[in-house]
Amino acid sequence: MIPDYLAEFFGNKFIGYLIAAALPLFLWILPYALYAVYAERKVSAFMQDRIGPNRVGPKGLFQTIADILKLIQKEDIVPASADKPLFVMAPYVIFAGTFAAFAALPFSSIYIGSNINLGVFYIMAVSSFSVVGILMAGWAGNNKYSLYGAMRSVAQIVSYEVPALLAIVSAVMVIGSLNLNEISEMQTAYFWNWWIFGGPVVGIKKFLLIIPMTIAFIIFFIASLAEVNRTPFDIPEAESELVAGFHTEYTGMKFAMFFLAEYGNMFVVSAISVSIFFGGWQSPFGYLGNSLGISWLIPVEQVFWFLFKGSLLVLVQMWLRWTLPRLRVDQLMTVCWKYLTPYAFINLVLIGIITLF
Amino acid sequence: MTTYDLIFYLFALIILVSAFIVVAARNIIYSAFSLLFTFFGVAGIYVLLNADFIAVVQVIIYVGGILVLIIFGVMLTNKITEVEIKTESFQVLPSIIISGIIGGTLVAIFTKTNWKVAEPQILDKTVTEIGRFLVSHYMILFELAGIILLVALIGSVMIARKEKLETEEVEK
Amino acid sequence: MENNSIQNILESLNYFTPELALMLTFFVLLLVDLFFRKSKYLLPAISLVGFIVSGYLLVYTPDVKGFLFSTGMTNIGLYVIDPFSFFFKILILLAMIYTILFSLSSKEINEAGGNRGEYYVLLSSFALGMFLLTSTIDLLLMYLSFELVSLSSYILAGFTRNVKRSAEASLKYIIFGAVASGAMLYGISILYGLTGTTNLYLINFYLSNQNIESLPLVIAGLLIIGGIGFKISMAPFHFWTPDVYEGAPITITAVLSVASKAAGFALLIRSLKIMFIDYTATNLQSSAWAILSQFKWNELIAGLAVLTMTLGNLAALWQSNLKRMLAYSSIAHAGYMLTGFVILDNQGIMAILIYFFIYLFMNLGAFFVVMLIADKLGSEEMEDYTGLGYKAPFLGVSLTIFLISLTGIPPTAGFVAKLYLFGALIKAKWIWLAVIGVLNSVISLYYYLKVVKNMFLRESEIEYSHNLGHGNLLITLSLLIPTLLFGIYFKPIIEFAEQSVRIFGF
Fold first, then answer.
1. A13 touches chain B (CB under 8 A)
2. What is the per-residue DSSP string for A226-241?
3. Are residues A276 and A257 in the same domain?
4. Please, are residues C302 and C339 in contact by the beta-carbon 8 Å criterion?
5. Is the pLDDT of residue A239 over 70?
6. CA of B75, closest CA in chain A: separation in Å?
7. Among partner residues A118, A132, A139, which is closest to B127 by beta-carbon distance?
8. Which residues of A touch B6 (CB under 8 A)?
9. Rounded to whole angstroms, how far apart are CA atoms A35 and A304?
10. Is omega for the bond preceding A232 within 30 degrees of 0, making it cis?
């Protein structure tokens, strides 16, 4: 485990763990967010038959880096009538919620920020910090659009937490663990051992589980789209109605923080899906390191597979964003309370019955 | 002083400072938001006590549920574009005296008492143990809590439903 | 061990049937309300059937069974069944059945429209909570059932949503209730810290065998007594009573003043007696028992009792609203009943039980007549009662009898109740307390008779005619006859109470 190794290297448990905890931020979140923004623009351009960014660097690859440089240089404006302390605090609270979630994500068999037993449950819990942060930002801006955006956003997140948690609970019931690292370890060997295909269960039960597990994944995926405020559930940020939702008043680096948090959240929910349903850091068809006999290659491959699968799901989210129209508020609530939640409950009971045998 | 002590005092400080702001802030929205840090600190203390499940539940229920509800309540009951929402204190002197007496008594109790200390146990999987307890030892309490929540739900729906019913009757 | 504990729980459920019946009633009502919203008599009928079935099961469960739901060694059970809880459960069921009957003819409830379903649903959860309170022996279960009772009653108190004072009553009740249960929880936590257990019997075991400081114990006890005192409207915690009783629908006021008070008393007596009894100094053969030496809880209760009855009676003197006056009078009655605990003798507890049984009929009767008159008159002001005795002679005479009984004047049952209570006090040499009790009864005579004077000795021009209907007549009679009968022939109550003083383990 990397955290333990670092702890030994520095001779102090806490320094080692602190550095280990900062690793995903610098090694993954920042570069990922930069290129996720780029990917989003390219995807949207592709779908709308445009070219997209193509000036800075080859194929516009350095476009977002230039954007970040621009944002850093900009003046950090706090509107005169804003509630200053809350206004300053809000982006950090939101980002803290996102970043804290990375602590329980297993990037590979040798790296997980904190190998706690409550993994998924913990991630769902810390995401509520983001909720409060959004309210804080919406309120502090002292702008009606911000406040409407914040209200919508929070109402949506709180509602969709119910089906999301139910879907996770129904999967966890079969798995018997909340620890994402343990869950990933179980789905070893080949892709038919992923939980979405019934997991490493033998016999008829495996085939019975395929359908409910798929339903659980779909429910979780839809609910997680709403939780990260992505289209078709982007009414909190609906550009055509609310300017930009809760971060209307933000500029400069603070604005960038919101973007970082948003893209970070997209990855977190994808990573939860990946860990629970798609084998986590397990490779779908065995490791190259095993066949070549190079043992240090295995963890590297695992990191690759984890990030690859996660990014793929992020890409699906982008694809959906530029395909589907936005829902109305009442439709949004109908989808959650009249469809997703009851189906999630039925699915829960179904899986419960299957696990009894 | 070990590092754990340091972390404990850090969380204790967070709790105390934010709880003080909750009580003392003149702007009610500040009180509501600083509750966030109080809950966070309490969750931290739970983690130090090896009660990870309680810590996570504390965050998910208090921060994700109750705090959001409180903030919503504050925002919806006032003119929402106005930041100025004030709270005031009355009867400062009597309340200081009374809370001083109560606080003094409590401090005396907590410092002087010979508490019954249980053997510290470090459980590998707290969730499993809690689940097992809830369906065996405390089953009746668990079910009763379900009924209480249902009653609370019925009550709140009943109170909130008011106006809709009245308009329905008018329409008829 | 797991299998064993599940076995134990399943076995315990056999003794838990009355409560299960109430739970079932709760859920059936909830579902029926969903589909048959329009029907007027279906829901009360189902609740009545549920309560009667529960009563039937109650009578046929065994007399004594200790430590239900006990599993393993760490926990010696949460629940007991004993004659003491049986008595209070019967009392609660009677009060609930009367409340349902009252509700049938109550204008306030019937005009509430769409919410009537919730009314009956909440009444059944209310009953369930009180059932649990009467026989819990675990602080956790005690707190949870306390909350169930409180939550149901908060909502019921604000049931008539269109009336402003009803909403106000509900809000005040919630605020006071939240403080009270918070205090109680704090007390429980201190007690748990001292003894490391939530079971009342184990707490008693630790308290008698370990050397425990008295300060934290006293504070914890005070906080818990305060929490329970809120439920029984004991003096420093009684502020909510007049407002809530006045604002709530009368049916709810009636049930709050009888049933929820009964549950509170059962809990108070049981928890204090079990927690603080001193085994070594108590001779279990005799009816008297001793209390642990850390603190004289009975002297504290004596002080609170005096405060409660005096405050209640003095405040009642100035009231012009009948409901409010009855609220203060119910505070005073709580004060009288508390004195029964002071003497640390089963005689005293028996007196409390007798008092409660009689109080049920007379208090419910008074509230019912006030409700009938208020539905017709649209007012509960004493001024509007002038000359009522001639225009509605039956109601006037009934109300007079109920009020006289509440005062405690001879031919009525109220006299018997007070006789036993004060008799027990004098026998145990608490003469000053008995004297204060008697003095208070004299004060109460003034305000009870003021109503009677208004009804019979003053003329008025207000037009009033009352067609009572057979149902209401029967209900009034069913309350009136016991009130008079038990004043003359009270042997059965005495015997019933005598059998019921037995608390499990003593």
1. yes
2. HHTT-TTS-TTT-HHH
3. yes
4. yes
5. no
6. 8
7. A118
8. none
9. 16
10. yes
Identity at C317, one-letter amino acid code: L
ipTM of the complex: 0.87
- Is the CB of residue B125 less than 8 Å away from at least one CB of chain C? no
* In a shared domain, residues A32 and A136: no
pLDDT at B170: 43
Length of chain C: 506
Query: CB–CB of B136 and C206 under 8 A?
Result: no
Q: How far is B5 from chain C (nearest CA, A)?
A: 22
Residue B16 has pLDDT above 90, yes or no: yes
Give the separation between CA B166 and CA B171, rounded to whole angstroms. Answer: 9
For chain B, give every domain's residue range: 3-110+121-171
Q: Is residue C261 situated within a structural domain?
A: no
Backbone angles phi, psi at B87, to 5 degrees: -120, 150
Give the residue numbers spanning the domain of A265: 84-356
**Residue of A17, A115, A139 for testing the chain B interface, max B β-carbons within 10 Å:** A139
User: Where in C43-147 does DSSP place strands (E)?
Assistant: 65-68, 79-81
Last residue of a domain, one of A51, A73, A95: A73
Topology classification of domain B3-110+121-171 = Four Helix Bundle (Hemerythrin (Met), subunit A) (1.20.120)
Q: How many domains does chain A have?
A: 2
The crossing angle, in degrees rounded to 10, of helices C17-35 and C42-60 is: 170
* B window 4-63, beta carbon within 8 A of A: 29-30, 33, 36, 40, 52-53, 56-57, 59-60, 63
Domain that holds residue C489: 309-506
Neighbours of chain B (3+ CB pairs under 8 A): A, C
Those of residues 113-152 in B touching chain A at CB distance below 8 A are 124-127
**Residue A81 near chain B (CB below 8 Å):** yes
User: Are C104 and C471 a contacting pair, CB within 8 Å?
Assistant: yes
Residues A25 and A124 in one domain: no
A48 lies in the same domain as A95: no
Closest in C140, C152, C219 to B151, CB measured: C152
Query: Which residues, numbered 50 to 109 in chain B, qualify as contacts with chain C under a Cβ-Cβ cut-off of 8 Å?
Result: 105-106, 108-109
Residue ranges in chain C whose pLDDT is less than 70: 1-4, 63-64, 71-75, 112-114, 161-162, 282-288, 460-466, 505-506
Are residues A19 and A51 located together in one domain of the fold? yes
Q: Has residue A188 been placed in a domain? A: yes
The two structure tokens encoding residue C230: 């809120």
CA C256 to chain centre: 7
CA torsion through residues A116, A117, A118, A119, sign: positive
Rounded to an integer, what distance in angstroms lies between the CA atom of residue A66 and that of residue A53? 11
A&B contacts, CB < 8 Å: 76
Tell me the two tokens of residue C425: 């006090």
Give a yes or no: residue C502 inside a domain.
yes
Task: Please tell me whether residues A171 and A273 are part of one structural domain.
Answer: yes
Q: Let me know if residue A338 belongs to a domain.
A: yes
DSSP secondary structure of B51-97:
-HHHHHHHIIIIIIIIIHHHHHHHHHHS-TT----B-----HHHHHH
Query: Shortest CB distance from A117 goes to which of B29, B63, B125?
Result: B125
Q: How confident is the model at residue B12 (pLDDT cuts 50, 70, 90)?
A: very high
3-state secondary structure at position C291: strand
Residue C485 located in a structural domain:
yes
Q: Which chains touch A (3 or more CB pairs under 8 A)?
A: B
pLDDT single digits (tens) C409-453 = 888 888 888 888 888 888 888 888 888 888 988 888 888 888 888
Among A73, A107, A132, give the residue marking a domain's end.
Answer: A73
Residue A79 falls inside a structural domain: no
For residue A234, give Cα distances in angstroms to A135, A227, A231: 16, 10, 5
Whether A209 is covered by a domain: the verdict is yes
- Structural tokens at position A282: 């397990």
Please name the helix (run of DSSP H) or strand (run of DSSP E) that holds residue A106, with its range, or none: strand A106-108
